[in-house]
Amino acid sequence: MSTEEDQLLIGAHTSAAGGVHNALYEGQKIGATTVQLFTSNQKQWKGRVFTQKELDLWQQALEETGLQKIMCHDSYLINLGAPNPEVLEKSRKAFREEIERCLLLGISYLNFHPGAALKEDRGQCLDRIVESLLEVEELVAEGPTELLLESTAGQGSTVGYRFEELGYIVDKVKGRLPIGVCIDTCHSFVAGYDIRTEEEWDKTLQEFDRQVGLDYLKAFHLNDSLKGLGSRVDRHKPLGEGEIGLESFRVLMNHPATRNLPKYLETPGGPPVWTKEIALLRNLFLINGISKR
Q1: Domain total for the chain?
Q2: 104-to-55, 90, 180, 211 alpha-carbon distances in Å
Q3: How many whole angstroms separate alpha carbon 231 and alpha carbon 50?
Q4: pTM here?
Q5: How far apart are CA 19 and CA 21, in angstroms?
Q6: How does pLDDT run across 45-57, given as a tens digit for each residue?
């Protein structure tokens, strides 16, 4: 295995059942070099409080597995742009607690969905998200965790499916917060960004650079899509079995702007599928392919 290939950061969203350290060991079993996990139950407002034993087990697992650039995915309940004051307060509290857990674990990235406008103006929602993020400015300054806005599919009233909206948030908080973006391939495809070929990836990355800045692209969620381009329906499929197709992921594994960024599978099927897909992604990494252009 080449040095460059050995350094590829590929993983999946592994299970933290029985303790967060178990997500690391599951990652090791599937051949991952990084993982994403929930640090607490993603469907409950009440967050997990770690014991010292849990923190010790986590550190031990980190040392034993050698995994890097660990990503946490925040709770599905959080809406940092919620118009309802009670929901907004709960969301901001839960988001702060997510960050606190990440800092305790030394996690590299906290991935989060920007929010949903519900029945109000999208601009108001974006501004409220910015306000929510700036409330944690001092907290995130204490540790290594970067906050990553996830590109969304655009279902319902969710914001962040257009690069312009992600760029708006980044522009308002950059310099004050460690901020970046995680592109979900399924989400951005159904949001209308064609990424099926090298040429289309080039166009999409150029648009991202114009609207956000490539320096802020930090990671990817890798998913094929059940639904078509621009459908704005979020349904994941295994790599190569959906509307995006395998060529897109070959490009991602070799493109100079994306090959070294961490990539996390969220495809259906669990560990047996992820083991095969991680091996597949490594095989798609071409030393003499477009990486040499």
Answers
A1: 1
A2: 8, 21, 21, 33
A3: 41
A4: 0.95
A5: 5
A6: 888 899 999 999 9
